[in-house]
Amino acid sequence: MAILHEKRKYTYEDYCKLPSDIRAEVLEGELLMCASPNTRHQRISREIEFTLSQWVKEKGLGEVLDAPMDVVLSPYTVLQPDILYISKERVSIITEPNIQGAPDLVVEILSPGDEKRDTVKKKAIYEKFGVKEYWIVDPTQESITLFSLGEKGYKEKGVYEKGQVLESVILPGFTLKLDEVFKV
Q: CA of 99: how far to CAs of 6, 10, 90, 129, 161, in Å?
């Protein structure tokens, strides 16, 4: 991820002025350009999104969306999570152009060279803005680390590896077989 232009505090308004073919995010005023994900990343994303979306739809629990989808957390923070879930009680934050507020669940899939962005910067931002559950998917290690938001911030609830089954904290009954996610 590369920093664009001169050092100044960027806003969502600045972000909206970028050409539509540029993938970028604004992390607390810092405008960062994003490379397109690789094929394995997209296959993993598809497996997680399909399983999660199907389960949420069957249960009538809300909506699952995927990138590119702007999540506006503040005028200076606009992210595009790989996958996000918003409960039916909070679907009012879904607007035609973007999401206006924190999703209930965010899934980020690590890309080579951008690991620190997802594991440190974005994790801190999601925690600050109240994302209840955060999954960091590591294609290299074939693992998913699940964080759950509590009174004192994020608590790691588990690191799930190939051969194991992830169980969501905020979606009781939802499970994800990592053998299916990483079969690609």
A: 28, 19, 11, 13, 31
Give CATH for domain 37-181. Answer: 3.90.1570.10
Q: pTM of the full predicted structure? A: 0.90
| Confidence at 128, pLDDT banded by 50, 70, 90 | very high
Residue 177, token pair as written in the block: 């077989």
Q: Are 62 and 90 in contact (CB under 8 A)?
A: yes
> Where exactly are the structural domains of the chain?
37-181
What count of residues does the chain have? Answer: 184
CA distance 24 to 34: 5
- State whether the Cα torsion 79-85-88-89 is positive or negative: negative
Q: What's the pLDDT tens digit per position in 62-90?
A: 999 998 899 999 999 999 999 999 999 99
51 backbone dihedrals φ, ψ, rounded to 5°: -65, -50
